[in-house]
Amino acid sequence: MFTCKDVTETAGDRLDGTLRGLTGLRFRLHLAMCRNCRRYVAHLRQTVAALRALPPEVPPVAVEDRLLAVFRQAHARREG
Amino acid sequence: MSTGNRSEHGSALPDEVLVAQLLRGEEAAFRAVLRRHHARLTGLARALTGNDATADEVVQDTWLAVIEGLGGLADPAAFKPWLYAILANTARKRAARDRRVVLVPGPGAGEDPAPAVDPARFTARGFWRDPPAPWDGIDAERIVAGRELVAHLSRALDALPAPQRAVVLLRDVEGLDGADTCAILGIAPGHARVLLHRGRARLRAALAGLVEAPGRDGGGGGGSGGGGRPR
Question: Helix axis angle, B27-49 relative to B79-97, nearest 10°?
Answer without folding.
Answer: 50
